[in-house]
């Protein structure tokens, strides 16, 4: 009876199948650095035989130049390329079960090359200018510059200006203490948290040092030319001032005349009113004289007149 109970107890264990368990699961998102080796791991245990295979964007993954399947549980990139970015799925399958895990591979890359790199050099100073095209979503942390003389045996080492790490918001930088009439080679690159971008190389020549006598002649020549320009400018300024004063005087005279005109008209109307009153008085007085009756003696006769 005891043996029968033991057999019944172990029957479910013998009939059960070992479930697939991921020992090293995949994260939801991973980052692989451009041009660096990288490995996706998906280790699982379960019933034998246990088969593992990979899918990228819905298509099976096979060995190729940049991918290597290591015991099928690992997908190795040697190295990572930009086109390797995508959604990967690790599928583990037995005769009775199938499970999968997926992850998104993001290719993290250093900055691209800087563009429009130019150098404007004088005798002992050079101004470097550049532009940033795209940072691929990863902020640039610094701009770096190196320079050295070209025609020297052996080639001199690269010099770094101060500060060595230039702010990423800057698009121009000055290099001091250069030698006149010398050819230099300059390299410039950008950096982010994933590394250094490709370098851009530019050659430039500093200006020749000017002889003191020739420099004095140039200054005098420039002085004569500047004197003529200054004289013309002064004449134009005087003429402009005179024109402005004339216009201002005309405006003031016009405003004064405009304000005085109503008063003159008012005084003229008052004079007309006074004259009209006087004429009325004279007319009234004349009428009174005509209406007055008086007697006069003319040749001994009385005459009545109006």
Write structural notes for this entry.
It is a single chain. With 306 residues, the chain is α+β, with helices and mostly antiparallel strands. It folds into three domains: 21-108, Immunoglobulin-like (Sandwich); 115-206, Immunoglobulin-like (Sandwich), CATH 2.60.40; 211-262. It contains two helices and 20 strands. It has helices at residues 2-15, 212-291, and strands at residues 21-24, 29-33, 38-41, 43-45, 51-56, 59-60, 67-70, 74-77, 86-93, 98-108, 115-121, 126-131, 142-149, 165-166, 172-175, 183-192, 195-196, 200-205, 294-298, 301-305. The protein has a five-stranded mixed sheet, with no helix packed on it. Strands 13, 14, 16, 17 and 18 form a five-stranded antiparallel sheet that branches. The chain has a three-stranded antiparallel sheet with strand order 3-8-7, with no helix packed on it. Mean pLDDT is 79; it is low at 1-16 and 293-306.
Brief synopsis:
Residues 12-102 form the Ig-like domain. With 306 residues, this protein is α+β, with helices and mostly antiparallel strands.
**Quick one: CATH superfamily of the largest domain?**
Immunoglobulins
Q: Portion of residues in helices?
A: 25-40%
Describe the global form. elongated
Please tally the β strands and state the result: 20
CA radius of gyration is 53 Å
Label the CATH architecture of the largest domain: Sandwich
- Terminal-residue CA separation: 180 Å
Task: Please identify the structural class as seen in this structure.
Answer: alpha+beta
Low-confidence segments, ≥5 residues, pLDDT <50?
Answer: 1-16, 293-306
- Chain-averaged pLDDT: 79
> Would you state the CATH class of the largest domain?
Mainly Beta
